[in-house]
Amino acid sequence: MSNNLLKGKVGIITGALDSNSIAWKVAEKAHEQGARFVLTNAPIAMRMGEIKKLAEATGSEIIPADATNVDELTQLFTKSQEILGGKIDFVLHSIGMSVNIRKNIPYTELNYDYFSKGIDVSAMSLHKMLAVAYKLDALNDWSSVVALTYMAAQRTFPFYTDMADIKAMLESIARSFGYHYGLKRKVRINTVSQSPTKTTAGTGIKGFGDFYDYANAIAPLGNATAEDCANYCITLFSDLTRMVTMQNLFHDGGYSTTGVSNEVMKSLGVEA
After folding, report:
1. I need a surface site. Which of 133, 145, 192, 242 has the fewest CB within 10 A?
2. Per-chain mean pLDDT for the chain
3. Can you give 116-135 as a three-state secondary structure string?
4. In this structure, is residue 100 part of a structural domain?
């Protein structure tokens, strides 16, 4: 159902890989709510995914860009404004990658070259995107930037290894740049800390299935789906949240503030 929450707004959505990805769902919801936008991803990710189908379904153009490359990001923001006919109203940062996780390297034995790559792709890319937009004055007053994160930035989850540190950096960048961009253009910058979600990236983490079930048993509302997350992002892009900025917003069915649930206690043979 459309309430035209984003009617007249234009944006940039990164990271849509396939129909399981949160960015894909955000694009569908943004289109449904009246927005126009461009889609972008790294060329290698585009070859792996199905982004062309999404572009056709939403009437969007695709601009390939490596989010670690300032020149390519400059082209992304410049060309996006040309295509969309003006400055940008919203940006979704949905970019994350850990070579250490992919190679099952434990946290105590991290490969530092891989770690640096993960920081550049998953956290520094947000700073680079914002710095380029700031320099080009590419974002409208009261525009909104949302980056996706995870609670491992605050609490230790052994299987999340270096991505926990990287997400902590991502959240810090959102706060720090949120201050400066708020002064310059009233731009809001927030992170959304999402439940474990059955995306292509999420399910690639060792032990994800068991943890997904555990989190679902802890959270009073259960795990939030990718579609739920997309709906939340739309509200953050809209004018309904004009005074929300520099926040890390938990979207996890209550998991982050629940110590233990009756269901988990019973599974351990303990009477609640």
Report:
1. 242
2. 94
3. HHHHHHHHHHHHHHHHHHHH
4. yes
